[in-house]
Amino acid sequence: MSSETSPCPSASASGRLSRNKKKTQDEASASEARISRLRPYQRQVALAILDSVFSKKGTTFSVEIARQGGKNELSAQLELLLLTLYMAEPKNLVKCSPTFKPQTVISMMRLKDRLNDAGFGGIWIAELGYIIRLGNARAVFLSADDKANVVGNTAHLLLEIDESQDVSKEKYDKEFKPMGATTNVTTVHYGTTWDDATLLEEVKQTNLELERKDGQRRHFRYDWQEVAKYNPDYLAYVESERRRLGENHPLFLTQYCLLPIHSGGGFFDPQQRAQISGRHPRKHQPDPGKVYVAGIDLAGEAEEEVALKSLNPRRDATVVTIGELDFSMCSDIASEPLIRIVEHFWWTGRKHTELYPQLVDILRNVWRCRRVVVDATGIGQPVSSFLKKSLGSRVTPYTFSAQSKSQLGFRLLATVNSGRLKMYRGDGSPEYQEFWLELERARSHYRPNQTMNFYVDPARGHDDFLMSLALLVEASNRYSPRSARGS
Length: 487
Hints:
By secondary structure, the protein is α/β, with parallel strands linked by helices. The chain folds into two domains: about 10-235, P-loop containing nucleotide triphosphate hydrolases (Rossmann fold, 3-Layer(aba) Sandwich); about 265-485, Nucleotidyltransferase, domain 5, CATH 3.30.420. Helix content is about 45%, strand content about 20%. The protein is built from 18 helices and 16 strands. The longest helix has 18 residues, at about 100-115. The radius of gyration is 27 Å and the shape is elongated. The two termini are about 40 Å apart.
């Protein structure tokens, strides 16, 4: 890869590499060669970090690089270089990740591979399951999980916080930041953006403010377009992700565009609601030869009893959403079917036991659904068990947790953004009106570790149709006909 003119911090760091009196000329030359093999944007970050390390500036950096853009390789090359240059000295660099498995383990494996590539195979030593030693220098790998015991370690050369957006601010301030207090250690926060309340975002905003005051660059940001300049395969991959997820999908915005999102906003924006609006008529019976799936959100019977005594204008309801799958548009680019919402069933104030025979008849005899995904959370568990016993493997119970609901929400957004979800045209029915009311009132809340919640504020209404819709998309995702996949 051709070299480019380096900015002032990079030139300073490069000069220190060659002038380092403690190292041999061969070592310095090898170090420069390793850094020069990085992509230009990686090299820019590496030289700024090295300038701080060698000059003992103790700078704290924030580095945002689009997902799969090479931040882990940058980190491993820095670790290799520092272990090589300081192998005669009993000094540590410390790296933490949100979890030990798999994140910390993957970082250790990458450093081991780079040590072997550099000719240190058989020389480096693994200690205690979380330390890699080269000579007297050590790379200490730790978990930043809230329960991890990391107190007592000292960072002399470098302190790295991987996926900083997923690390607790309290954990960092209390246990990791003090590791470099006595050594004025250089600190690097790596990651991708999420919302405006993460540790990475806090460090980033502090760095940007300091940059405005003294002009020293501390924050580095390289989105997917910058990475794609140097990797055509990456360009093709991200463009396919953009088609799959949609440009305004939270994961695409944060992981590739590096744009933070804000909690409490609408789950669907006007454009997305317009995409969902379809032109096909509502159906009350299936067409021959068509494939139908269903999503079922169940009313909480305990909640219904409470609602009877309250001023709530409507009790929690059981909603069944029927979707017709159209595989005619499938191709190598769009391999998933179009989902046409064709029917809704809506019961309020009906006990689950009363609904059993009607649900079975609708799903098996009327619509002959190939896949049914049903809310199996809490009181929904016996209903899902009954349906599975009656309808067999076509029924999938879905238990809501923070993680599983987050996945459901992201999948729903991706389906909407790709134009694959269409609602029947207006028929003036209560179901039609309630469906659109819930979609308009739906909100989103983004949490750490790239998870989210979607809901309707109970003070503003219910989300039965919204959850049934999400479960319908899950049912479509679980139906994989051989003929459609073969094409």
